[in-house]
Specification:
Oligomer: single chain
Strand content: 15-25%
Number of strands: 14
Number of helices: 15
Radius of gyration: 24 Å
Strand order of the largest sheet: 1-2-10-7-8-9
Structural class: alpha/beta
Largest sheet: 6 strands, mixed
Distance between the termini: 49 Å
Order of helices and strands: HEEHHEHEHEHEHEHEHHEHHEHEHEEHE
Helix content: 40-55%
Length: 402
């Protein structure tokens, strides 16, 4: 049984007071609807995520002999940066094992803190295996990204900040990968304010903790496949599973498109950049997963280290889901005036034509017709439906990818 002690979190809070930022807690008028939504901006933390809290506290508690041997970590990027910076500030050598699929921006940022990088094919779990081998060979201290009580206690300092910033909070929504963040947050919240709900959120394609709680035992996934790389963990920790089982009220899952929509909403409405993992709580609120009404809810935006190549695809996915961008295929009579009729019908609804491409390669349409691919911009789903009806009324046979 896990021996969690709130005093350890308070010790971490004191130690970290001059190391980490006390990040803002902002009310979001846009996200607020049936509930009053606040966002805890850990994406603005040093290194761009909450991970510095747990990593620094753990490293600060190492013995002098352990510090001399150096530290090892494995991470998709955020924990790596936290360990690298904490080791640098404590004049300790760090070796970081990172999945080769991690965003290049996270890899380069980790290097910038002076760490030695080892890229490993696969996901977090594969990097962990290699890190464990290296630890046995060198005797360096392994800094676990989530399954360690001192790391968990460091992450739990976020909950102390939330309770200071919003004492009448009704619920806290937390992203889950291996479970270190939610374990610390939930244990603190339930100890100091037991009536406050704590909900976890995972990507539906990487829902290892969700499946574990449902199955009442730690469950290892065969595959994880999500652009929320910070939560791409096949197998939750022993400590974190026990703490989640004890303190977390419920866990929900969200789709890749829902995560993308949350990232877009945070950028457009809150002027803040979240990575996939960081947007999970907002996605859960936006798509009505949280079973509350008229309550004050805090969403922890755990990180903002998103690769900008991925961001472009994410925003396109979000625009498609929200009905603001679509790709239409339409067959026209191949004669003068038909294209003008089509564009007039589209523009008459207030939609915007981004691109028109004639497809010459189709063999299954009559010779007197042509096929067009049209990229369109609309205001929302209702506007897109209005466009579809207008085209149908005007006799155009159109299909949409969105």
């Amino acid at each position: 049984m896990v021996d969690f002690n709130i005093e350890t979190v308070k010790d971490a809070y004191s130690l970290l007071s001059n190391i980490v930022r006390k990040t803002s807690l902002n009310k979001s008028p846009y996200l607020s609807g049936k509930n009053e939504i606040y966002i805890k901006l850990e994406n603005l933390q040093l290194t761009g995520s909450f991970k510095l809290r747990g990593a620094y506290y753990k490293i600060s508690k190492l013995s002098d002999s352990d510090k001399e041997k150096g530290v090892i970590a494995c991470s998709a990027g955020n924990h790596a940066q936290g360990v690298a910076l904490a080791a640098h500030k404590n004049n300790i050598k760090s070796t970081i094992f990172i999945p080769a699929t991690a965003p290049l921006s996270k890899i380069e940022a980790t290097k910038s803190y002076g760490a030695e990088i080892r890229l490993i094919d696969g996901v977090y779990d594969d990097a962990y295996i290699e890190a464990a081998k290296y630890q046995n060979e060198t005797g360096s201290k392994f800094i676990h990204p989530f399954d360690d009580l001192e790391v968990i206690s460091g992450q739990g300092t976020i909950a102390l900040e939330i309770l200071e910033q919003l004492s009448d909070v009704d619920a806290v929504v937390v992203p889950i990968g291996g479970g270190g963040l939610i374990s610390g947050v939930a244990a603190v919240i339930k100890t100091l304010k037991p009536d406050c709900k704590v909900y976890g959120v995972q990507a539906e394609n990487a829902a290892s903790m969700y499946e574990s709680i449902k199955n009442k035992e730690r469950t290892k996934l065969n595959l994880v496949n999500t652009f929320a790389d910070g939560t791409a963990v096949k197998y939750p920790g022993e400590l974190t599973f026990e703490l989640c089982n004890k303190y977390v009220d419920e866990i929900f899952t969200v789709s890749e498109s829902e995560i993308a929509s949350a990232i877009l909403a945070l950028m457009e409405k809150e002027k803040t950049v979240a990575e996939g993992a960081g947007a999970l709580p907002v996605a859960a609120c936006m798509f009505d997963k949280i079973p509350l009404k008229n309550k004050k809810i805090v969403c922890i935006i755990s990180g903002g280290n998103i690769d900008f190549k991925i961001l472009s695809n994410v925003l396109t996915r979000a625009l498609l889901k929200n009905g603001r961008f679509s790709n239409m295929t339409v067959d026209l009579l191949d004669q003068p005036g038909e294209l003008n009729k089509l564009t007039s019908a589209i523009l008459g609804t207030g939609a915007n034509i981004l691109e028109i491409v004639r497809n010459y390669t189709l063999k299954d349409i009559p010779l007197n017709k042509c096929s067009l691919n049209v990229m369109l911009e609309t205001r929302n789903k209702e506007h897109l439906e209005e466009l579809k009806k207008t085209l149908q009324i005007n006799g155009f046979n159109a299909t949409f990818d969105s």
